[in-house]
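Much of our argument rests on the idea that a fold can be written as discrete symbols. In the encoding step, the backbone of a single protein was reduced to a row of integers, each denoting a local shape. This step matters because it turns folding into a mapping between discrete strings. For completeness, the protein is quoted in full, as a sequence line and a line of structure tokens:
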Amino acid sequence: MCPPKFPNRTISFQTMEENPPKVNKWDGNALKNALDDAVKDVLLSRFSYVESHRLLDGRLLISSIAVGFSLFALLWDWLYPFPQSRMVMCVCVVAYFIMMGVLTWYTTYLERGIFCTALNKDVAGIDPDDVWNASSSLKRFDNKYHLCLSQKTGKTGRAKEARTVLTVENFFDETGRLLYGSVVKEVLRLHADVEHKKN
């Protein structure tokens, strides 16, 4: 018996440039996320940078520790019902809220709206990597997208940045489809501004 024959199928993955996302123009979070994704796509594709997940990993670690305290408190209370578990429960509750405070500090002062960290690897592998950060903000009921690109030179450790304010309407068509080419132009311009700045 011959095995059944299946038609040849090729799986194709479309890039953001080939198939820009379509979002609800009245949803501020969706607009910001689409622009953030496009900016990150430009940095990683046009400059061949390597994305770093250290900031996200740090947030996940802090959150995991907080959840670990909660799960331990539940397990301990199941093994040793209240009031035997009172002391452990109190310690875990306090520890959980401390970790939430640490998480708030981490997102406010370390992440600072950064949605992409990209590394410009040294070709020779001798000098430390240059670190590029992209951060943004879009206030509620506002149409001004604030974008910042910063570079920390691995060799000297000095940082420089460039900022711009973009009008959201200029980057989406009438149907809510992202105008990827317009994002590319702005990111390339901002990237050049950072590179041309003196340390």
Observations:
- The beta strands are 50-52, 114-120, 130-137, 144-152, 159-167.
- The longest strand covers residues 144-152.
- Helices lie at 28-46, 54-79, 86-111, 180-196.
